[in-house]
Design a protein that fits this description.
Strand order of the largest sheet: 1-2-3-6-4-5
Order of helices and strands: EEEHEHEE
Catalytic activity: (Z)-3-aminoacrylate + H2O + H(+) = 3-oxopropanoate + NH4(+)
Shape: globular
Keywords: Hydrolase
CATH architecture: 2-Layer Sandwich
Low-confidence stretches: none
InterPro entries: RutC, RutC-like_sf, YjgF/YER057c/UK114
Protein name: 3-aminoacrylate deaminase RutC
CATH topology: 60s Ribosomal Protein L30, Chain: A
CATH superfamily: RutC-like
Strand content: 25-35%
Family: Belongs to the RutC family.
Length: 130
């Protein structure tokens, strides 16, 4: 099956061997997205809401680069470091998904950089573009 890497303009170099998104048969798989700047430094240290907004804005850029919108998102995988941040993460999440909500799951875990409070991976159905 043909696959297309989706790399929005201005994307920094990833920490590991992956691309921001892969489009295959109209389905976009967005890699786990952390609150990183272009140099892979954590932004908004200590602020789960701001980190979540940064992560979802980054994901939105990948989805749009693939020709979709956030309304095309069908699944989110949310990883957080502390359940105390669950409410703040959900408040920002609701801003990005105001209508019908995608399926999702949320787990508490350690992340690649200690100052990162949230990571989200996404699946979106954007049509057959690859």
């Amino acid at each position: 099956m043909p696959q297309t890497a989706v790399i929005p303009p201005g994307t920094g170099v990833p920490l590991a061997p992956y691309v921001p998104g892969t489009l295959a048969d109209g389905i976009l798989y967005v890699s786990g997205t952390l609150p990183f700047d272009k140099q892979n430094n954590v932004v908004h240290v200590g602020d789960a809401a701001a980190q979540t907004r940064h992560v979802l804005t980054t994901i939105q850029g990948v989805v749009e680069a693939a020709g979709g919108t956030m309304a095309d998102v069908t699944m989110n995988h949310i990883f957080l470091t502390d359940w105390a941040n669950y409410g703040a993460i959900n408040a920002v999440y609701a801003e990005f998904f105001p209508g019908s909500k995608p399926a999702r799951y949320c787990i508490q875990c350690g992340l690649v950089k200690p100052d990162a409070l949230v990571e989200i991976a996404t699946v979106a159905h954007v049509g057959k573009k690859a």
